[in-house]
């Protein structure tokens, strides 16, 4: 969680600086693409504050009302961020692009816009690179696209989605402004705003789908089940592992429920000792498991 908070704070500082710079540029130039980018960065600032709320709340210990803890609050706030990215960034940028196509306005002070876009691109690129480095630590040899689809670290994926969309949006804004100046046709600026909006909508839909699955109670990484099956084979009192059920409760927090078929002839004390030994071995093998419930059963 500490690493996640560091990345969020870094991205927040970057986006506050960029939002202010883009806001000034939008006023000076009258560019729809710059206005779309300024709103995008402002929305990102709000989003990162919400992610901080989610990460902080997820650290709260279990209590009487939430006996399994608050880990899923990260997923809730990540989903809210995806919705805001869709509505506050994407939909408004598309609206601005359509408006500018219908009512083109000349773009002024192009030097301001290019300078600020270049400055923003450097900062957003730095933040995105930091996200990639952090994800590399976590995914190991897993391909990036597969990690983005399968990971349970929703806050980091949302950050990466926001920052990478911002980099792409900045490139589009810069290209559209230069085309508008070179051709003398302000509609290129409107096209840039439209494209930025479509990029944000696409990223928001991807993030929303991924986070919704976690919010509903997605199965944990299948390697956890594989590890539990391997541990069961080492336990002399376990004849067979009947079933394993896993649920991702939050980043690094997994709930597991198992049914096991124990060997014949065990008394109550023997059953308890067998289950305790199994649970201890599982916790030693998989650190992400926070809640573990083992039920003896007869599958014959």
Strand-helix topology:
Elements lengths: L1 H28 L2 H27 L14 H30 L7 H30 L4 H7 L3 H30 L3 H30 L5 H12 L4 E13 L2 E10 L5 H18 L3 E8 L4
Parallel strand pairs: 2-3
Antiparallel strand pairs: 1-2
Describe this structure in words.
Helices cover 71% and strands 10% of the residues. The chain is mainly α and 300 residues long. The chain has a 3-stranded mixed sheet with strand order 1-2-3. Helix 1 (2-29) packs antiparallel against helix 2, helix 2 packs antiparallel against helix 6 and helix 6 packs antiparallel against helix 7 (187-216).
Poorly predicted spans: none
Q: If helices are DSSP runs of H or I spanning 4 or more residues, what is the number of helices?
A: 9
Number of strands: 3
Query: Mind telling me the C-alpha Rg?
Result: 25 Å
Termini, distance in Å?
Answer: 44 Å
Mean pLDDT: 84
The oligomeric state is: single chain
Helicity range: over 70%
- H-E order: HHHHHHHHEEHE
For the biggest sheet, the summary is: 3 strands, mixed
Spatial ordering of strands, largest sheet = 1-2-3
Q: Structural class of the helix and strand makeup?
A: mainly alpha
Strand content: 5-15%
Shape: elongated
Quick summary of this structure?
This protein is mainly alpha-helical.
Jot down its keywords.
single chain; mainly alpha; 3-stranded mixed beta sheet; 300 residues
């Amino acid at each position: 969680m500490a690493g996640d908070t560091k990345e969020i704070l870094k991205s927040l500082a970057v986006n506050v600086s960029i939002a202010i710079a883009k806001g000034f540029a939008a006023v000076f130039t009258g560019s729809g693409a710059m206005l779309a980018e300024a709103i995008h960065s402002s929305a990102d600032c709000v989003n990162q504050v919400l992610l901080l709320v989610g990460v902080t709340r997820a650290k709260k210990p279990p209590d009487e009302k939430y006996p399994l803890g608050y880990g899923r609050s990260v997923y809730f706030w990540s989903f809210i961020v995806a919705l805001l990215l869709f509505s506050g960034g994407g939909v408004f940028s598309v609206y601005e692009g359509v408006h500018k196509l219908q009512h083109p306005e000349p773009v002024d002070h192009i030097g301001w816009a290019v300078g600020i876009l270049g400055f923003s691109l450097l900062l957003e690129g730095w933040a995105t690179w930091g996200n990639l480095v952090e994800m590399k630590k976590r995914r190991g040899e897993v391909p990036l696209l597969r990690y983005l689809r399968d990971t349970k670290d929703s806050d980091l994926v949302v950050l990466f989605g926001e920052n990478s969309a911002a980099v792409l949006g900045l490139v589009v804004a810069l290209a559209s402004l230069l085309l508008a100046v070179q051709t003398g046709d302000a509609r290129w600026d409107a096209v840039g705003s439209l494209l930025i909006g479509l990029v944000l909508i696409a990223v928001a839909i991807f993030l929303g789908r991924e986070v919704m699955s976690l919010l509903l109670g997605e199965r944990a990484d299948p390697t956890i089940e594989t590890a539990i099956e391997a541990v069961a084979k080492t336990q002399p009192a376990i004849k067979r592992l009947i079933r394993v059920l896993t649920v991702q409760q939050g980043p690094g927090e997994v709930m597991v429920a198992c049914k096991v078929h124990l060997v014949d002839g065990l008394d109550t004390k023997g059953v308890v000792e067998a289950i305790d030994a199994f649970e201890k071995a599982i916790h030693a093998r998989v650190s992400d498991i926070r809640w573990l419930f083992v039920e003896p059963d007869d599958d014959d």
